[in-house]
Amino acid sequence: MTSTRPRFRFAPSPTGSFHVGGARTALHNWALARRSGGTFVLRIEDTDEARNRPEWTQGIIDALAWIGISADDAHFEGPHFQSENADAHVAAAHRLFESGAAYYCDLTGQEVQDRAKELGLTGYDGYSRDRGLEAAPGRVLRFRVPDGTTVVSDGVRGDVSFENETIEDFVLLRGNGTPMFLLANVVDDIKMEITDVVRAEEHLPNTPKQQMLWEALGATPPRWAHVPVLVNEQRKKLSKRRDKVALESYRDEGILPGAMVNYLMTLGWTPPGAEAAGSEIFTWAEMEADFDLADVTLSPAFFDVRKLVAFNKQYIKNLPLDEFLAAVDAELPVDWDRRRFASIAPHIMERLERLGDAPGLVDFLFLGDGVDPELDHDAWAKASAPDWAAPLLDDVIEAYSALGDGEWTHETLKAAMETAMGPYEVKLGKAQALPRVAVTGRAVGPPLFEAMETLGQIETIRRMRSAVTRLGESSAPD
Ligand code: GLU
After folding, report:
1. Residue of minimum CA distance from atom 6 in ligand 1
2. Starting at the edge strand that comes first in sequence, how are the strands of the sheet with 171-173 ordered?
3. Where in the sequence is the domain holding 425, given as residue range(s)?
4. Is the CB of 226 under 6 A from ligand 1?
5. pLDDT of residue 17
6. Ligand 1 pocket check: which of 46, 203, 204, 227 to mutate, most ligand atoms within 8 Å of Cβ?
7. What pLDDT, on a 0 to 100 scale, did the predictor assign at position 3?
8. Ligand 1 atom with minimal separation from the 206 CA
């Protein structure tokens, strides 16, 4: 190896969307590459032609950037494309043939299966090993698996031994001469001087084969590490068909990148400071400094969307206001007055699980003057039921109407409400129920007095008067 600094790589196959499991693998490689002063190589494994669209590559780069893996960072290299290296894959295969490490076989897939069945084997029996076949159309090139044991030294699981007799002579080149994934992946890793392969556990069965290829090609195998996969609530591997796995879909529904990164990093790994801190919320710098493959748990990690959302809630709450306003902006209707939103924003931040929840919480502030909010009828029925509710609303209207310029602040509004409710001997929570439904249409929402302050005196009082009219109508005889 000419390079002394570690070289990690992330080698996604472009498939249209970016899997959260892939994001986690990318983050592991990113943390390790940066911490060691090494390099994170992005290689797009695009040799499957059906999966080869430029916009998908851009999607990967954008998704990586969203989770903080920036192509502008000094530790980032790429993207490289597997397809650009196709000649090297074939040349390597030919070298293996020349050296005797690989041989051609003319059996069809069906013939291989039939023989295996006849002989009671699970795979290819080495039929053409010593037949001395040359290359010809339709003949596959197979690797001659040597006798013995292959020990994969894995950064997560320690030494894992594979008996070579359980590994069939696997195919390197198809009958049409195109390279298989195993070969292309190794040839690229050798060419890119990769020192560390950190990837999902599903590739562990490939690893003894790949290690043999590294050796047969005269290179020193990398350090391997296979991280347990992500599973869903039923403990099944996360799948595109069953589960929401696209990173983009979480981005689009208002999960903050910091929350996603923090959650993905702490899946199957607990930062050393977590117990003392009583929290799993960590900055990227902290996680990058502490992440260690040896501490990753061996069991599959449950990707729990509820927990991700709980992380997100924390992250939203902790955002500086200006960053919150910038992040939430895309979720707001274009015609909403941003200044008005900014005035209520500090009062809703800690209630949001997702940025996308924001508009629904404050939409009653953006209806335009003279428009009543849509009414939650249950909330209205409940809030208007007590016999003191209507008279108190009248008193509140009177008190609020008397407020002069400069007095329309949430503090004054609260104080005036408290004065008005005195004679009725009710608590503030109950007293504000009907005014709240009148002004917001609902029983829950942002703090009422702050909302009224934002809405303004004229419209707040108008809505309360409109509620008085509605009360009159509902108590009128049929
Ligand atoms: N393209 C492979 C995948 O996306 C890469 C496997 C590897 O990391 O070696 O699964």
Report:
1. 11
2. 102-105, 140-143, 171-173
3. 367-473
4. no
5. 85
6. 203
7. 53
8. 9
pLDDT at 457: 97
Q: Has residue 388 been placed in a domain?
A: yes
**Catalytic residue (one of 236, 240, 244, 317):** 240
Residue stretches of the chain with pLDDT short of 50: 1-2, 476, 478
CATH number of the domain enclosing 435: 1.10.10.350
Cβ of 203 closer than 6 Å to ligand 1, yes or no, is: yes
The residue assigned the tokens 């040349």 is: 91
Summarize pLDDT for 200-234 with one digit per residue, the tens.
999 999 999 999 999 999 999 999 999 999 999 99
Tell which one of 10, 13, 209 to mutate to probe ligand 1, the residue whose CB is within 8 A of the most ligand atoms: 13
In a domain, 264, yes or no: no
Tell me how many domains the chain contains: 1
Asked if residue 426 belongs to a domain, the reply is yes
**Residue 86 tokens, joined:** 């196709």
Ligand 1 and 15: CB distance under 6 A: no
Q: Which of 15, 20, 44, 185 to mutate to test the pocket of ligand 1 (most atoms within 8 A of CB)?
A: 185
311 inside domain: no
Which residues, listed in sequence order, are joined to residue 75 by a DSSP beta bridge? none
Give the span between the Cα atoms of 219 and 197, in whole angstroms: 14
Q: What is the pTM of this model?
A: 0.89
Is 240 designated active site?
yes
Query: pLDDT, tens digit, for every residue of 330-364?
Result: 999 999 999 999 999 999 999 999 999 999 999 99
Question: SS in 3 state form for 143-198?
Answer: ECCCCCEEEEEECCCEEEEEEHHHCCCCEEECCCCCECHHHHHHHHHHHCCCCEEE
